[in-house]
């Protein structure tokens, strides 16, 4: 029988062997007209007007450019569009590394996502993708050994046009209490928690402030914000989200339910008898519920207060990938419908726990003219601003940091032209580059 350290070493070695090869994760379901051996990988997702609306609501977005097809048709874009990070439902931008039925003794969390978008997403679009793990770095800190896993993902539409790229970072934290498997014994739950938290109890004054902030939020819409009218140091209007709930959490999974296979390539199921049989067949998915004693509880560590300690968390906590998408609202509410978010990075610093409200703040840190060149050598100039993003909870604790690049209409250059010129297959941008302000 393996020791904890032996299992951890095996995970690191096997995950390193997978670097620079197409990821086997997030394949289309085994039932359907898909070539699951093809690269780029076909996606079962197709954008429809209703799916775009549901996606927008899943990140708290109510801009009619995304939710009202008629409004979109009247816009300069000529159709309803989806926010760029909807691409995560085509292919998750992080890679989980080596897999085996009993799992490995790590608690994994999405730690960051950087996006580069080249065009808008429209109804009727189908997709292919390619995801490749690129870097694996092992460090030891206050919480023990951490494995930082970096991936590169390309997203193409059904015409072969590249719509965007993502760079995802997963952190795998070693958990000694798990022994040599992915699931710790129920009697060891809460021996190790990364945080000490209870749900926040809001005072009357906090509720009044939060409601005023929510009621006061607006989007610029069709009013142009010209690049020449922006100044370095300008603050963006805050983006506020109400206290995080289980319903907020489940909307994320509902979007791509049935469109992806499990890690082992089998049909992904999440509820009732099929989920039970999945747990019996694959111990990595089964948790003994500490209250009921049922040994085949589903893998609901995000959503279930009693199961979240299996991930070393004291409360239900948000999906990092869901939070990584929300700052685009901060940028588009401020910049308006005539702007385009070209790059965005969100680095997760701590979870958003059940009942936490969040506030995203932005500040313009740079103005510049960006030159974009195609593979054929055509160059276009864009009026760009770099924005620093800070996410805070109701206690003013930082839960995420990041940056964005927003391309604006200009009195000198005119309105934007899409798609943004780019090489046929843009080079990999290493983690130390795409996480820094200079890339934006």
UniProtKB/TrEMBL annotation:
Residues 14-38 are annotated as: Disordered. InterPro entries: FAS1-like_DH_region (IPR039569), HotDog_dom_sf (IPR029069). This is MaoC dehydratase-like protein. Residues 47-160 form the FAS1-like dehydratase domain. The lineage of its organism: Bacteria, Bacillati, Actinomycetota, Actinomycetes, Pseudonocardiales. Gene3D superfamilies: Hotdog Thioesterase. It comes from Umezawaea tangerina. It holds the Pfam family FAS1_DH_region.
